[in-house]
Automatic annotation (TrEMBL):
Domain of life according to the entry: Bacteria
Reaction equation(s) it catalyzes: GDP-alpha-D-mannose = GDP-4-dehydro-alpha-D-rhamnose + H2O
Name recorded for this polypeptide: GDP-mannose 4,6-dehydratase
Sorted UniProt keywords: Lyase, NADP
Role according to the record: Catalyzes the conversion of GDP-D-mannose to GDP-4-dehydro-6-deoxy-D-mannose.
Species name: Gelidibacter salicanalis
Gene Ontology terms for molecular function: GDP-mannose 4,6-dehydratase activity; NADP+ binding
């Protein structure tokens, strides 16, 4: 019998990689997607199967984490062996703008899923993965952070995720549900949302190198993050639900890097060296050398500025995780390091921007059938 998985947040970065991973493991995969006025399935279009096909193993359903009735009905219909709750308003900075919605989706949304499984009497059948986050650690209490490090959330997003974390633990203890938290540190990829800092940088660097943009404006360049590749992290989500016991797990690379150094690494991929000058909001970066003939800018070109609009009311300064438990008990180790990640992201974005560039330069003229 095929195992059945239900993924919330299927249209997001992790949802897309996890769906692909589970399909390769011969699962029947069901995804919950929100209704939107434009198609938002770019990341999973390659997995789509025509509803008229027989032997389908990939299904999409409309749904929303703020709608209990919808979640109860879907879980009843799909009868999943595993639920991966990845849906969330996942942008820390935006959570300061829409705190109530964030609490409703990221906090109460998790409760709605757990409660649906309980109401339907599926406690013994269905295992649940909750997408917890290193943002729970917030203000530094301990370095590196482990499963026992105290939480100190620093944003409406992190506070909502803290509720989700503890309600998952509570349902495990109260009702014997196989419900687990993966406390995942930042993980990125070529399909990362465009407004998270890594993707904002790799997109901008590609555009700057191709002459499509002059510079990029960023916020806090001193922030340090433990960045891994999303492909490594979705594998661990699955491993967590295959374990003998329901537990909570830190997933991280164990290395931390500043935003500033990530910028340098991204520019290095197009053969450019940078120098940073100034401090705080006055800090800027300039090109000091171009080693790749394809990407040339005049030496001294200013390519990075700081804009305080991107500062957060409360910041998380330093994240670095210790994933020893995952390594020792489940044998998980990341296969890609930060250098591999930056390479993969830059390769993706240079290709994407080149395509955009060519289309703008004249490709559309040949497609103008209506004039
Ligand atoms: P994304 O922002 O790429 O994806 C979030 C997904 O949730 C999207 O499919 C989005 O739909 C969906 N969603 C948002 N609100 C709702 C709602 N109310 N009802 C149903 N679906 C909703 O996030 P990631 O893939 O990067 O992250 C996946 C999960 O892991 C999130 O919960 C995130 O908070 C958490 N996490 C992420 C980390 C990371 O570094 N990536 C680290 C630790 C935790 P739509 O496409 O329509 O917007
Ligand atoms: P984060 O990711 O908040 O860690 O949450 P993000 O990439 O948004 O920020 C990382 C750090 O970079 C600094 N920064 C900027 N951030 C953005 N977005 N834009 C900028 O211009 C900019 N300049 C500097 C930020 O201040 C921050 O310190 C991500 C999300 O995926 C969460 O859902 C997840 O839970 C955590 O990672 C782990």
């Amino acid at each position: 019998m095929k195992k059945i998985a239900l993924i919330t947040g299927i249209t997001g970065q992790d949802g897309a990689y996890l769906a692909e991973f589970l399909l390769n493991k011969n699962y029947e995969v069901h995804g919950v997607k929100r209704r939107s006025s434009l198609l938002n399935t770019d990341r999973i279009d390659h997995l789509y199967q025509d509803p008229h096909e027989t032997n389908r193993n990939f299904f999409l359903h409309y749904g929303d984490l703020t709608d209990s009735t919808n979640l109860i009905r879907l879980i009843k219909e799909v009868q999943p062996d595993e639920i991966y709750n990845l849906a969330a308003m996942s942008h820390v900075s935006v959570s300061f703008e829409i705190p109530e919605y964030t609490g409703n989706t990221d906090g109460l949304g998790t409760l709605r899923i757990l409660e649906a499984v309980r109401l339907l009497g599926m406690e013994k059948k269905t295992r649940i993965y909750q997408a917890s986050t290193s943002e729970l650690y917030g203000k530094v209490q301990e370095v590196p952070q482990t499963e026992t490090t105290p939480f100190y959330p620093r944003s409406p997003y992190a506070v909502a995720k803290m509720y989700a974390y503890w309600i998952t633990v509570n349902y495990r203890e109260a009702y014997n549900l196989f419900a687990c938290n993966g406390i995942l540190f930042n993980h990125e990829s070529p399909i990362r949302g465009e407004t998270f800092v890594t993707r904002k940088i790799t997109r901008a660097v590609s555009r700057i190198a191709l002459g499509m943009q002059d510079k990029v404006y960023l916020g806090n360049l001193d922030a340090k993050r433990d960045w891994g590749h999303a492909k490594d992290y979705v594998r661990m989500m699955w491993m967590i639900l295959q374990a003998d016991e329901a537990e909570d797990w830190v997933i991280a690379t164990g290395k931390t890097t500043t935003v500033r150094d990530f910028i340098k690494m991204a520019f290095a991929e197009v053969g450019m060296d940078l120098e940073f000058k100034g401090v705080g909001v006055e800090e800027k970066a300039f090109v000091t050398a171009c080693h790749n003939d394809k990407f040339q800018l005049p030496i001294g070109t200013e390519v990075v500025n700081v804009d305080p609009k991107y500062f957060r009311p409360t910041e998380v300064d330093l994240l670095i995780g210790d994933a020893s438990k995952a390594k020792n008990k489940l044998g998980w180790v990341p296969q890609m390091d930060l250098q591999d990640l930056v390479k993969d992201m830059m390769k993706g974005d240079v290709k994407l921007m080149q395509k955009e560039h060519y289309l703008k330069e004249g490709g559309h003229k040949t497609l103008n059938y209506f004039e």
